[in-house]
Design a protein that fits this description.
Helix content: 40-55%
Order of helices and strands: HHH
Mean pLDDT: 89
Largest sheet: none
Strand content: under 5%
Shape: globular
Number of strands: 0
Number of helices: 3
Structural class: mainly alpha
Low-confidence stretches: none
Distance between the termini: 14 Å
């Protein structure tokens, strides 16, 4: 759960006027684009000491806080 809080804090730096819910699609809402996704990948790799591989780069892994958290959990397991 701590990882979700860290990711939410990261997202809040970009989207201060809205608190993104755990299951909201940040791409569908227009909050994220491909450049932002790359910034997020760099943040996740550094913050959680994980390596996001090419096969992890599916947008479905980054659409919601829940999906991002699942990716982190898989990579740190």
């Amino acid at each position: 759960m701590e990882s979700k809080v860290k990711v939410k804090t990261f997202l809040s730096r970009f989207y201060r006027k809205r608190e993104i819910q755990d299951d909201e699609d940040i791409f569908e809402l227009g909050f994220a684009n491909s450049l932002f996704a790359m910034q997020m990948v760099m943040f996740l790799e550094k913050e959680f000491n994980i390596r996001i591989e090419t096969h992890d780069m599916d947008l479905s892994n980054f659409r919601t806080l829940n999906k991002i958290n699942e990716l982190i959990e898989r990579k740190t397991a």
